[in-house]
């Protein structure tokens, strides 16, 4: 359905309210939470992130402000590492963990991105903290399920982003006889308008470097397969060699045929800028892209529109930044204090108002947030939640790397659909 002022964030089912979640995590035995000022008084906490600039740094600063109010006796030590869109931080983190020198807590994408750390015995379960901080009553059940691995939870999400969003320039659409308020029931309906744009000499769909192409792939898979079969790709219940996956990969091939030829030389801001400048009609990107429009004075519903990728109405393709509790940290009480703030309503409200994402909690007041964020909050509370492939929620890093390699090979013309499908199947078989 269409949200106000031209934003469509389709929702399904009844509003989740007064959630009482079953205990998905492990037991509490042997784990004193150490939360609150008494347990952490006089300590410090090194918080390791890649939030060193822009809205990410603003969000971190806002969260630190709440932390200082909630835990005034704990010193915050900023371990942010700039550069490489997080790659520099991840490389340094891996070196420190292998050397037995972990930060007190580190930022990571919630979900199976953490599996390598878990298997290496580098993370403690935070399931007891979910109970102590009453987070099972604050997060949607689908999210708690996706955070749970073999009965335990290993991170506390502080925000949520949505991956399956289309951003559009309504002027470009109107100039080419396309209704900017049009609602698409499927990819095939959308492709018809992309054909019209392409025939008119307009770039229908902007995309950028390899990871953005994997991002597009995941949303096409979700659109064609539906949430259950899409989730089955990651839990083994959907056969990667099936005909339905073949058809979805053919849809992805068709989608890539509408994209800009210079894509491999761009990153996501440049691809989004093509829509802002009217040099492309559509872009599929996570909802961090809204900041790019708003920073340039663009108004939702007038200068740009946003809606779920056609075929994904009622589904929220999620990724989340979260914080962990490593094994043998020097300041465990301080780390638990930070995790308490990161999961708190006050902390998540302050952080997400500055960063542009939305709280993982369902009890946040939508009136505190921007118009787009309000639509995302509504959808997150009501939609079916699935895990993002490109952003660490659906698979371990090793699997994502193999999928990315196969996707780059395919989109560069070095393989066909059959080869691409076989390589994806092999990546997930390991």
TrEMBL record:
One of its GO terms (cellular component) is ATP-binding cassette (ABC) transporter complex, substrate-binding subunit-containing. Keywords: Signal, Transport. InterPro entries: SBP. GO terms for biological process: maltodextrin transmembrane transport; maltose transport. GO terms for molecular function: maltose binding. Pfam families: SBP_bac_1. Transmembrane segments: none annotated. PROSITE patterns: PROKAR_LIPOPROTEIN. The keyword Signal applies. The keyword Magnesium does not apply. Belongs to the bacterial solute-binding protein 1 family. This is Extracellular solute-binding protein.
């Amino acid at each position: 359905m269409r949200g106000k002022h031209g934003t469509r964030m389709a929702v399904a089912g009844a509003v989740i309210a007064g959630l009482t979640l079953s205990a998905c995590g492990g037991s509490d035995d042997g784990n004193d939470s150490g939360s609150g000022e008494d347990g952490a008084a006089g300590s410090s906490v090194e918080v390791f992130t890649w939030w060193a600039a822009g809205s990410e740094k603003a969000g971190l600063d806002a969260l630190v402000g709440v932390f200082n109010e909630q835990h005034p006796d704990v010193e915050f030590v900023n371990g942010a590492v700039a550069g490489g869109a997080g790659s520099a931080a991840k490389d340094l983190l891996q070196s420190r963990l292998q050397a037995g020198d972990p930060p007190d807590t580190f930022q990571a994408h919630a979900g199976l991105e953490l599996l390598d750390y878990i298997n290496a015995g580098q993370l403690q379960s935070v399931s007891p903290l979910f109970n102590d901080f009453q987070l099972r009553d604050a997060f949607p059940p689908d999210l708690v399920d996706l955070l749970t691995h073999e009965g335990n939870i290993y991170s506390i999400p502080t925000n949520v982003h949505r991956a399956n969003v289309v951003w559009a320039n309504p002027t470009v659409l109107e100039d080419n006889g396309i209704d900017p308020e049009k609602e698409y029931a499927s990819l095939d309906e959308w492709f018809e308008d992309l054909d019209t744009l392409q025939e008119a000499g307009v770039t229908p769909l902007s995309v950028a470097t390899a990871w953005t192409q994997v991002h597009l792939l995941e949303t096409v898979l979700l659109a064609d397969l539906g949430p259950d079969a899409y989730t089955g790709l990651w839990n083994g219940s959907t056969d990667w060699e099936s005909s339905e996956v073949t058809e979805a990969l053919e849809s992805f091939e068709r989608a890539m045929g509408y994209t800009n030829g210079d894509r491999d030389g761009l990153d996501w801001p440049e691809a989004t800028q093509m829509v802002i400048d009217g040099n492309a009609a559509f872009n599929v990107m996570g909802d961090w892209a809204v900041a790019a429009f708003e920073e340039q004075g663009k108004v939702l519903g007038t200068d740009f529109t946003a809606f779920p990728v056609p075929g994904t109405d009622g589904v929220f393709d999620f990724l989340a930044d979260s914080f962990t509790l490593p094994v043998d940290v020097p300041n465990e009480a301080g780390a638990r204090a930070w995790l308490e703030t990161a999961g708190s309503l006050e902390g998540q409200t302050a952080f997400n108002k500055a960063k542009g994402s939305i709280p993982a909690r369902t009890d946040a007041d939508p009136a505190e947030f921007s118009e787009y964020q309000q639509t995302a909050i509504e959808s997150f509370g009501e939609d079916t939640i699935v895990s993002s492939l490109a952003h660490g929620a659906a698979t371990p890093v090793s699997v994502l790397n193999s999928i990315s390699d196969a996707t780059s090979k395919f989109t560069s013309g070095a393989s066909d659909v059959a080869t691409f499908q076989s390589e994806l199947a092999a990546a997930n078989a390991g």
